[in-house]
């Protein structure tokens, strides 16, 4: 019995491996395979249009109508297709996702509303507490960032149309319900440019990802949500950066919060086509100038702390100034890193009590606001254990 059972296991493993490692370059457009990716769940993968770029490389559409229950469409270099499908298989079978709240099982915490001057938006339907996960979402569309260097603008529009058309009908309609600000632009192209996020795969490959639910969030220069991309689970997750009251609009920032008011307005206008009227941008000019001055000092503090020119004894004061400026500017997503700078500065001068205080604040705020994807938290745990508590005491 044992050899027979072992043979069955080996044959089954070989079948799964063969499905994962099929040569996608040999597939012709319109062909498909079925790959076992998650227990009894199977997903049919299809190859769509392929087109040769300026460099001679071929970019092709890869799509599944069943992935994540709503489908996914990818436009990428043909040589990356095998790797991408293996990633899809890994994402679909990732056990971590079984423990993640989903929009289908979570108690509704927001609703779509009309927002004066903005059109549609999302608002809290109950009080949301700091650190709450609101919406884990997988990408509906992924486009290789190298695409723009390979085709003319008109060819890119044509490829994006083909990509959108490869989506299931319901998902296509969800995509087309998003706003696109370019009045005379192609409707598909405009919606993608206005709503996509830059994400990394395999550490280096940059893709533009579209997440329809996340894309419905409006901008605020001082947002109440932070979005975080996890390559391990292929999930964009929203965390509450602070307490959010019932009926308060949910917002993210489309630009970096430490940019000056003029730079923020310029980028928002050129990329998304609107003039920001958030609470910060609506301040009187003299108060905006004060805010801009604080941002200059904030960035100067960061540069000084990142340089090797400061003496250890000088770092705590600069780090304290950084923390104060971040708190003054309500840059909640920068709080964890500012606390981390302070923790390192005090650890360096062996002020263990203050270092432990800031280490605790950094870890608490970092995991709460930025999630497990925050890169500094493991380093800070080691700092706490090895430097601050070598004998289990502070």
Automatic annotation (TrEMBL):
<feature type="signal peptide">
    <location>
        <begin position="1"/>
        <end position="18"/>
    </location>
</feature>
<dbReference type="InterPro" id="IPR046341">
    <property type="entry name" value="SET_dom_sf"/>
</dbReference>
<dbReference type="InterPro" id="IPR053185">
    <property type="entry name" value="SET_domain_protein"/>
</dbReference>
<feature type="domain" description="SET">
    <location>
        <begin position="108"/>
        <end position="255"/>
    </location>
</feature>
<dbReference type="Pfam" id="PF00856">
    <property type="entry name" value="SET"/>
</dbReference>
<keyword id="KW-0732">Signal</keyword>
<protein>
    <submittedName>
        <fullName>SET domain-containing protein</fullName>
    </submittedName>
</protein>
<dbReference type="InterPro" id="IPR001214">
    <property type="entry name" value="SET_dom"/>
</dbReference>
